[in-house]
Amino acid sequence: MNFKKIIPFFSAFVIFVIASLLYFSPVLSGKQIKQSDITQFMGMSKEIVDFREEHGVEPYWTGAAFSGMPAFQLSTYYPNDFVKYVDDAFRFLPRPADYLFLYFVGFFLLLIALKTDWKLAVLGALSFGFSTYLIIIFGAGHNAKAHAIAYMPFVLAGVLWIYQQKYLLGFVVTSIAMALEIYTNHPQMTYYLGFSILILGIVELMTAIKEKKLLTFIKQASIIVFAMVLGIAVNSTRLLAMKQYADQSTRGKSALTINPDGSKKQVTEGLDKEYITQFSYGIAETFNLFIPRFMGGGTVESLGENSNFYETIKEKVGAAEAKAYSKQVLTYWGNQPIVEAPAYIGAVIFFLFFLGVFLIKGRLKNWLVATTIFVILLSWGKNLAGLTNFFIDYVPLYNKFRAVSSIQVIAELSIPLLGFLALRDFFLPKVSSEEKEEALKKALYVLGGITLFFGLFGTSFFTFEGLRDAQYQ
């Protein structure tokens, strides 16, 4: 065994463990994050847990939620579920440090699959894992979403290895990663990942046709499909139970035949369009990804007594009222009903992304740029109604999921990935100094131009008025 080849991976492993535990250091003393969704889950699943402990079998039903419902989506253990043991082996750290560790390892593996130096891959992994949105979701208790996002890079690494003709390695990684991805039990995130893989497949197909390697592509695509089917199949019990429940829920065919006014109701399947697009990312709000707190902060934040807000309220109603108000300030001025905190990928990461746009040539750039544009457009939801309605009406399963803004998690992956591939190529001697200089200039012009525009004219183009500002009157 060549230990020199193992040392970088072991070093990365140690760095990721230390970074995860340092960031969530209170877990080392037994503390836990207060997560509203997890608190609700514990209450709703208590009856199931108590029954399981008392009788040693699964109830598959609970009366503690919605006047009675199947337990499939709350807390159910399935027999012969070996994927659970694989997942437990990866998530050996205290929660939520375990999810952060998974973020790091997955993105590191993805960059390694793309032939990136391990030290640069470590830096890229840390940049991905500490992306604002990926940390925000822990506060709300979206553990399943974090879990699913963490396994996305693993799946993509396996698929890319297959396209690199490393068939055995790619097949094994893809099938195991897909099994783990499905196991996380967040089908919406897995569904969005499918779009990215589909776009990659289209890019690879176009390249294969151009290079007259269609048979090779068919072979690769077949291996990918088989690996994914295998990963899905080992979760068949979970998926079939989920479908049985979904068919009887609001995501299934409606049983209502008349409207409230007595008129005949058109029978539909899937969620209502208004409900699907309730959380639609604002077009201007997209700049939150590049400009920190462009749309303010979360729906409610504590600003404290050292803020201008406190001083303003104090002048009007006194110190006592100002102190109370300052603990729950409406800081978000976008149009979404509730926002935990602004999703910020990073100005530096965006600079590297545009560096990649101008420096990298070929399939990888085409895939990542197309994926980024695609998911941002879909995240706009009702703000780009034509595209969104087309997907709701005609794309299979799209109408089963709400909060279309969530698709931006794919951009959280594609933007830093292209950025660190740009850094990889920037340090390669085969790329000429002229190409590097030209790409740097163009990236600087784009990001500098956007920054200058908002610096000079931002207050003229935007009102900075929120949906709930009238409450302060």
Shape: globular
Content-based structural category: mainly alpha
> What strand order characterises the main sheet?
1-2
Give the low-confidence spans.
none
Q: Biggest β-sheet, characterized?
A: 2 strands, antiparallel
Query: In total, how many domains does the architecture comprise?
Result: 3
First-to-last CA distance: 72 Å
> What is the total tally of β strands?
2
Compute the CA-based radius of gyration: 24 Å
Q: What is the helix content?
A: 55-70%
If you had to describe this structure to a student in words, what would you say it looks like?
The structure is a single chain. Helix 5 runs antiparallel to helix 18. A hairpin with a 6-residue loop joins strand 1 and strand 2. It is built from 19 helices and 2 strands. It has a two-stranded antiparallel ribbon with strand order 1-2. Helix content is 61%, strand content 1%. The radius of gyration is 24 Å and the shape is globular. It has 473 residues and is mainly alpha-helical. The chain has 3 domains: 43 residues, no CATH class; 162 residues, no CATH class; 171 residues, no CATH class.
What labels describe this entry?
single chain, 473 residues, mainly alpha, two-stranded antiparallel sheet, 19 helices, 2 strands, 61% helix, 1% strand, globular
